[in-house]
Here is the input.
Amino acid sequence: MGTHLWFHGNLSLVSNSKGKNSNTICTTTISNEWEMNINQTLEKEEEEEGEDKEEQEKARREWDFSLCTTVVTSSSIGSVSDTISVIEFDPSDRFIVTGGLARKIRLYRLQSLIPPHYSSIEVTNISSCLLDHTSACDYYICAPAKLSSLRWKPGADSRVVGSGDYDGVVTEYDLERQTPIFERDEHGGRRVWSVDYSHWGGSQVGASGSDDGTMQVWDTRLDNTKCVAVVQPSESRSPICCVEFDPCGGQLVAIGCADRNAYTYDVRNMMRPVSVFLGHQKTVSYVRFSNGHTMVSAGTDGCLKLWDMDNGGIIRTYKGHINCKSFVGLSVWRSGGLIGCGSESNEVFVYDKRWSDPIWVRGLEQQHESGCSYRFVSSVCWRQKAKEEDECAIVTGGSDGDLQVFLGKRRSPSLG
Here is the structure.
């Protein structure tokens, strides 16, 4: 009995058969089976791809969004100095604060931007209202420098907000007294891009990321003392564009860096990163926790990426918006599974975490003559505490200083 080796395309077959007929029959049988298996595999892949497209189309039809309120600058001509860099809802869901290049921290009552009766109206029937910042905001605090970041301080009953500015200073403001109560200047005058506070274990730890390539970690109870830790993710001291502690109370802090990488550190030991997330082709401008196991990053390569924090792998890449040079904002509605970001095309984009393409895109209408031809969405923020699970709200800020509030409502299955 001889042993024969037969090749059919990329398939190799070892046969201990006798005679040419046996070998021919065996080869032909395997060939037919192989072709059938390949055809079945291709059909299955096409079927799955069709199902994915169908599911994604359902996601596009799942939400209706409508403009609720627009707040414009008091002057008739908006300019680059009006750019809104940051928008933040407070933990109690009563207020919104904004900051930007106008050097003002503005505080708005949520009910002045989203009237309570709107929840009983179909989104498609909402008539938007036009306000100006002077009449819409409760008050504003003048800051000494342009503002890049704002964050509400946990455990302060929506009374204290921290800021980072272009002069490299971190300041905390008592909003009731409208005065600064805490100040740090640890970055040598280099611009602070981002500030945040830890929610882990009732700690009073804050952090700031700067152009100097470091994240400074400090305890707000220890005034004007040395930092708790200094983290430098990049050996070349690439600027740190964003820092965010796990808002769900975990012990991790995430960093977005100009070296094209994102990092996570454990607040209990910041000697080295827990994970390094590789995949962006340009600066990582934002990082946002999605839940305890996933994180979203934004880069000036025009991509958002959803990461598996357990293994550092990319789960999904989101494309559609334009972002190659500016901060355009990133926000994740954690309980709703939606991601919002701005675009240099002056549009706001909403992605469903499950799909790579946007489910909703809206261009921001120009409400007044602009002193700058280059207009873009510069900040976005989801309302985390929705009254109903089928309702949501996203607020956008523009380079022209306009603030816009969009309400979303999930369609009933019969309308899907």
In short: The first helix runs from residue 19 to 60.
